[in-house]
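Note to self: the last two entries modelled the partners one at a time, which told us nothing about the interface. This time every component goes in together.
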Amino acid sequence: MAKRIEKIVLKNFKGASGLLELEIDKNKPITLIFGENGTGKSTILDAIEFVCNERYGSIEDRSVGRGNKQAEYMSTIGTTKTQLEASVTTSDGTWVGKIGGRNPVTTGPATNRPKVEILRRTRILSIVNAQPNERYTAIKGFIEVPACEANEQTLREAEKQKRKEYEDATKALQQAQSTLKTFWEREGKPESSSISWAKKVVSVDMTELETVLKDLESISTSLTTCATASNGLSRSQTEYHTAKIEYDKMVTNYETAKAKYKEDVDALIEVLTQAQDFLQKNVGTTTCPVCEQTIVPDTLAARIRERLAAMNEQVSARQRMQGAKQTLGTKSTVVGSKQKDFRNAVISLKAIVQPSTLPLITDLKLDYSIFKKLTDSKMDVDAESFDQANTLYSAINAISSKLAAEKQSLSDTKGKQKALQNHLDTIGNNTKTASDLEILVKILAQILIVVDQQRKKFVDELLQSIAGEVECLYTAVHPSEGIGKIRWYLNPQFQGSLEFDGQFQGVANVPPPAYYSESHLDTLGVCVFLALSKHNKDDNTVVLLDDVVTSVDQVHMERFFKMLNDEAENFNQLIIGTHYRPWRDKYRYYSGTGSKVQLIELQHWSLSKGIRHTKTKFSIEELQDVMVAIPFDRQVVASKAGILLEGIMDRLGRQFQCKLPLKNDPDYFLSDYTGGFSSTLKKLLRVERKKSDDSIENIELGKKIEVSTEQTWVRNKVGCHFSVAGMTISDSDVVEFGRRVIDFSSSVVCESCGEYPNYNKSGSYWECRCSSTKLFPLLSPGQTASVTNV
Amino acid sequence: MSKSPDEILSERIITELKSKSLLSDIELEKLAKGYIRGKVSIEDWVMHIESSLKKEGENGKEN
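The predicted structure of the combined assembly is written out below.
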């Protein structure tokens, strides 16, 4: 058994500045939260949705942004979203809602969290007055089949993907066929078709061709290596010759410089240079190491420097000559190395061409015996081997163009065969692929049709079923008005488009927004919502109605209340927020302590005090309370008793169509009501009440009316006007008047369900919801038909 | 316990696919398991069809 919400706590939640604790009577299926605009009704209902559904509530329908923005506006002004908290309690536990990051997060017991369906005025407009796509969005949550829709989506994607693959395969096939045809036509259309020709071409054995091509490629590669080595050798020889010229020039320059001296300049420079080194290494010596004469070291050193400086030209020329000689030696070594590279490259070439059977090579009729030196690549290069290398290279290189042409021709033949093979493969593969894909796509499309049709059919059936329920509810509110017959259907031409039409003055299939009044559309929206909620309900479903009715007239309002009372039984709990005072008074005056409705009245709101509430009492309870209150307030007792008496008399008067004076002002006084009940009716009026022990209590209501209206002067003198005569009326008379009114009112209202007997189920009498209290007669004398609702 | 809308529709779709012989019984059985959870991927759809076609081909050969 699902548990009802019994407590709501709000902390810094929207208008609930500070802490708000609201106790809900879990024994009553309906809770009516009444308050003027701006007293906090929507805040309380938003908090329930916030905790139970982890949604931001009414702010989601307003243009304040999404996610973080909405989160910012959920907390009371002057506080932050982290200070916000709301909780909902049932006897299964407490669920606490906070804002975690961007979204509401609720913690609490894993199961039995109340499931909330909430209807706001904005949603009514979305249901009945919006465009078909918006209407679909508004009720999508009730009719969607998420698992099936997810599968349908992947099916659509599979069909699309495979269709694309099929088209690609077909395109590749056509391209390959077209290319093959072009080749075939270029060849003069040999064979019966391009395919048979291509097959014949690719069937030719290419082993021999590939062997020849391989030989040609080896020779070509080897020739390239030889050419590279030859070029390198040429470059090194050029560099050697340049170095030789430079060296010769340096030798000449030195000889010229040397000729200026008679002595052997080389030896002299050598001696002086060594003497200079000796003096630097033997500082302070005073004896010449050659002639053993006494010397002055500094003087001798200075003189050696002078003499060497005088021979600077000869010294430099000698140094340049020695440098050029070294360079020449290096270049000579490089030439030797390059000669070896070239010789070895030709040895490799010889190894390839000598055994070759290629006609181009054999036609050269080379005598390989003359290339005896071209065998060992490790041997030093001598003139003979170098000459042999040059001879062989020149002979082969002479036919390099022919070799290249032969190679190109064979490559083309091979390439052509390969290309044809590729096209044949493409045709073969894609013919199979395209054929397989064609079947696959066809089946995918067929399945998609089934899935799509079944979903639409299912949703249509669902909508029809809901429409039937809507019709029942709507007819209860608008009987015999020639409207209703609501029909819902998905527009097959558009995805997510929900159309609806109905009847107006007997004309079928008209769009309700075009013909129905605002109040008719309001009640239609509520009926649609209730039907959808009923369809989707589970044991934990709590329905919230947030100020959904603003413009319903008295007659429709009565029927509407009755319909809601009846429908409340289908849900775990119904919580209504309204600023419509007749709704609150309806329950207040015509219900007793056993009523299924709890009344909560919100007081004036201020930021400092936040949302404040009072549990509103039914009039009978309120009168009982003031009668025993200390100090005793006689004026309040007389006034409240009079109003309660008027309320009951008004209800009875309407129920039995009593004759009251026709007045411009539709308000009637007690005196009007007293005269409206004929003596015949009063004799017939009685209440039959089933007691807890199953015994039946009969109450003659006519007598109760007479007894309670005997003292209406108490209300007039004490409760309404300034009256000296009223001052003479004792407190006990006032109490007696109150007691009689309570007795009369309590006689009419059921002790068990707390409701007034206003259901005509039997066709013989009126009865309350639980049928424990029956009111007789059904019709007053002379009345031809009972009113449909009172 | 009453069936969810997804369960009802899934059953209807499987029944309809069966009546139209668009998939083999074995593949429909496998499909039904994933269908109720909304877990039929693109690859699953293709695999169910290809397996059905393969089975059909094998049966054809046998006959």
